[in-house]
Amino acid sequence: MVCNIVKDAMFLAMKSEPATDCPEDRKVAKDLCDTLKAHAGSCVGMAANMIGVRKTIIAVTMGFFHVPMINPVIVAREDPYETEEGCLSLSGVRPAKRYRKITVEYLDADFKPRRDTFTDHIAQIIQHEYDHTRGIVI
Asked: Considering the chain, what percentage of its residues have pLDDT values greater than 70?
């Protein structure tokens, strides 16, 4: 289901709660991917709070796929840099510190544990959405 995008900065600044392997959280992951796909022309990543759900779930566009990451934790960061980012929930662009290479531990769509390393643009997207789950609004 395609959801409306939350633009309330106060709501977005609230920390998300961990997702659990329950039907409701599985539906959130699917809805998040559906909503990301619907906004593919203007968005490459989303966090569940952007669709009104305070759960630690993000979705990232990787090539032709919209990949959910449940309860992601960035466990390693390398090569910091400064950039500017926009957000579908907010107007304009803002400065952000990011890392060119990150390692993330997360659960996949089947709630199976994963540990992957990402670089460059994909790493930047993940960091932006990860910040959303922690209530950090750029």
From this structure: 100
